[in-house]
Design goal:
- Belongs to the CheB family.
- Pfam families: CheB_methylest, Response_reg.
- GO terms for molecular function: phosphorelay response regulator activity; protein-glutamate methylesterase activity; protein-glutamine glutaminase activity.
- The chain has 372 residues and is of the alpha/beta class.
- The protein has two domains: 136 residues, Rossmann fold (3-Layer(aba) Sandwich); 206 residues, Rossmann fold (3-Layer(aba) Sandwich).
- 39% of the residues lie in helices and 20% in strands.
- It contains 13 helices and 14 strands.
- The strands form three sheets. A seven-stranded parallel beta sheet has the order 8-9-7-6-12-13-14, sandwiched between helices. The protein has a five-stranded parallel beta sheet with strand order 2-1-3-4-5, with helices on both faces. It has a two-stranded antiparallel ribbon with strand order 10-11.
- The longest helix has 21 residues.
């Protein structure tokens, strides 16, 4: 299982309220104990099926709901739209066993409003004994809770010194050559946000070779690639090691493996490796961005999007030093402003843009349409 980045968090003003929805009484009890012991969460309800989860959403309006995909009466896919309707401000974290079907369903749920998914160990005994899973669960919930707290406050001063492009001239001043490669890093909240940017790019995608590191486990990344291909009608896939990278194609890093790039016989090819995690992540944004800096320089445009932790900061620094530009998603439009916030605080963001402004800005830089 892919490790979740560890980072320090500010203490919340109050424990975040949580509803746990899972058909297993063992799992419900285990999750409730872990959350209670952390001191950061208050479990206000547990549900054994989708109908009960909807009732708890309407009664408690919790900050967070941990929602299992496989439940009786109504499963997570059927229950989610009604949960969102009953309690629009509730952040929904999905949990599920790791299967191809569940990966597809989880991505469907993220398009409907769930913000992240956490695969469960294969067995209940594995769940009970897995310290990594417990750490991942608490880390994701802590990140979600902290993001909710920040979004209720005034924006911090961390990004105040970063230049915010206001027009075509300013945007084009960010790059020394027209970028032909777009490298994207995202984590929590990423699937929906990345799909939005790619959709906004429209015809400009034909001018780009696009590489994406989205923190996801195996199976999920393949389903994510299939989903993008279906939505956009653009060739999208997990690349194989040594594959020549083509313009007009989108490549998604395979879950659990690093995606980098190399030059071979004058061509840019994908490099897929099982190297150690970087900043607790595999695939790691830092790996892709560092190799883009080494082999592409200013021909690469970096984009760091919503996600927890700091993966991508070192890579963004390398890309800036190589003459490339890096866009960071702004805090207000990010589900979690960990990764882009880290890049901004490090002074490595060429521009900080809201989600709806990223696609138009990139179109300005690479051609394929005027900014909206």
């Amino acid at each position: 299982m892919i490790a979740t980045p560890h980072f320090a968090e500010r203490p919340a003003a109050r424990p975040s309220t949580v509803v746990i929805a899972d058909d297993s009484v063992v799992v419900r009890g285990l999750f409730a104990r872990w959350l209670g012991e952390s001191g950061r969460f208050h479990v206000v309800g547990v549900a054994g099926d989708g109908e009960a989860a909807i009732e708890h959403a309407g009664r408690h309006h919790p900050d967070i709901m941990v929602l299992d995909l496989d439940m009786p009466v109504l499963d997570g896919v059927e229950a989610l739209p009604r949960i969102v309707k009953e309690s629009p401000r509730t952040a929904v974290l999905l949990t599920t066993t790791l299967t191809e079907r569940n990966a597809q369903l989880a991505l469907q749920c993220m398009n409907m409003g769930a913000i992240d998914v956490l695969p469960k160990p294969d067995s209940r005994s594995g769940l009970t004994l897995s310290l990594d899973f417990r750490s991942e669960l608490l880390g994701k919930l802590g990140s979600i809770a902290q993001s909710r707290l920040r979004n209720g406050e005034a924006a911090p001063d961390a990004g105040a010194a970063v230049a915010m492009p206001n027009g075509v001239a300013d945007l084009r001043s960010l790059v020394s050559v027209m970028p032909r490669y777009l490298v994207i890093g995202a984590s929590t909240g990423g699937p929906r946000a990345v799909a939005r940017v790619l959709g906004d790019l429209g015809e400009a995608l034909a001018n780009l070779t696009t590489l994406i590191v989205q923190h996801m486990p195996p199976l999920f990344t393949a389903s994510f690639a299939d989903q993008i291909a279906l939505q956009l009608g653009v060739p999208t896939r997990e690349p194989h090691d040594g594959e020549r990278l083509a313009r007009g194609t989108i490549y998604v890093a395979p879950g659990g493996r690093h995606l980098g790039i190399e030059r071979k016989l004058g061509h840019i090819v994908a490099s897929i490796s099982d190297g150690p995690p970087v900043h607790f992540c595999r695939p790691a944004v830092d790996v892709l961005f560092a190799e883009a800096a080494r082999h592409l320089g200013p021909a690469a445009l970096g984009l760091i999007m919503t996600g927890m932790g700091s993966d991508g900061t070192d890579g963004a620094t390398a890309l800036r030093h190589a003459g490339g530009a890096v866009i960071a998603q702004d805090e207000l439009s990010s589900t979690v402003w960990g990764m882009p916030g880290s890049v901004v605080r490090a002074g490595q963001a060429s521009a900080v843009l809201p989600l709806g402004g990223i696609g138009p800005a990139i179109r300005t830089l690479v051609g394929g349409g005027r900014p909206a």
